[in-house]
Write a structure and sequence with these properties.
Structural class: mainly alpha
Distance between the termini: 100 Å
Order of helices and strands: HHHHHH
Shape: rod-shaped
Helix content: 40-55%
Radius of gyration: 39 Å
Number of helices: 6
Strand content: under 5%
Number of strands: 0
Length: 169
């Protein structure tokens, strides 16, 4: 059973933070190398805005990872947009960032991660209720009628009582 305090990070959140930080550093350097290479040619100068995009993504990834790593957790939502942009970096040839984006999207769908983010943001828990266990059908027992002493009928003795006859005059 996984019990954790409201702000204790599950292992998957820490994994997301580590992977996002590593991907941010790689994207930062990837963007610098691509920009420096692009500046070497005339066509590359025209394509320079495209080569800067991994650098910008790397900066956002590092900031997001720093928020996840902070000792005093601050309200932060799962960043699916960063994960999608990480997946799109395969167009630039960055396979590592693509794998990190796919894993991040998978980890965001885990119940413990959803619960952590919902508690961190002050929202109610996301946990689904436990499945109902079928209970055996219990039939009610027949109820015996309780008669109060005042309502009891007198028990007749074996001999019937004689009644007096009144003489006619």
């Amino acid at each position: 059973m996984n019990t954790y305090y409201p702000y204790q990070k599950p292992g998957l959140v820490t994994a997301i933070a580590v992977m996002t930080l590593a991907s941010g550093i790689i994207n930062l350097f990837w963007g610098f190398v691509a920009s420096a290479t692009a500046l070497g040619t005339i066509v590359g100068v025209i394509c320079l805005p495209i080569t800067i995009l991994p650098t910008i993504l790397g900066i956002f990834e590092i900031i997001y990872a720093a928020k996840l790593f902070s000792a005093q957790p601050e309200p932060v939502q799962p960043s699916t947009s960063i994960a999608v942009l990480q997946i799109l970096t395969f167009l630039m040839g960055n396979i590592f960032s693509m794998v990190v984006g796919i894993l991040a999207l998978i980890f965001y769908n885990d119940l413990t991660v959803k619960d952590y983010f919902s508690r961190l943001n002050g929202a109610p828990l996301v946990m689904t209720p436990a499945p109902a266990i079928p209970q055996p059908e219990i039939l009610p027992e027949p109820i015996e009628e309780v008669i109060s002493p005042a309502e009891e009928t007198p028990v007749q003795s074996e001999k019937p009582k004689r009644t007096r006859k009144v003489a006619d005059k």
